[in-house]
Amino acid sequence: MSALWIAHVTVTDADAYAQYASRATTAIADHGGVFLARAGRAVQLEGQGHPRNVVARFPSVDAAVACYNSPAYQEALSFAKNAATRELVVVEEVD
């Protein structure tokens, strides 16, 4: 079953985060990920809001986790570590 990679992000260093985003885009695509939402308009109806929300669809939970653990994504992530606070979850889609 396909899975959604959902990230909620508050960017604190735009230049470094841009380096992350550029590299992460390639890593995500290499693992079959396709962006459904990426920092577009959002309306927070409940809970804590974040300025940047990202949703990508992967072929499976395993593919999304493999992406996260891949050397290419981990290299990208090194640019985000001190450039943003992030929450990331992978959720299996319903059939």
From TrEMBL:
Q: Which SUPFAM superfamilies match?
A: Dimeric alpha+beta barrel (SSF54909)
Domain DUF1330: residue ranges? 2-94
Gene3D superfamilies named in the record: 3.30.70.100
Q: Which residues form the signal peptide?
A: none
Q: Which domain of life is it from?
A: Bacteria
Which is an annotated Pfam family here?
A: DUF1330
Q: What is this protein called?
A: DUF1330 domain-containing protein
Specify the species. Roseinatronobacter ekhonensis
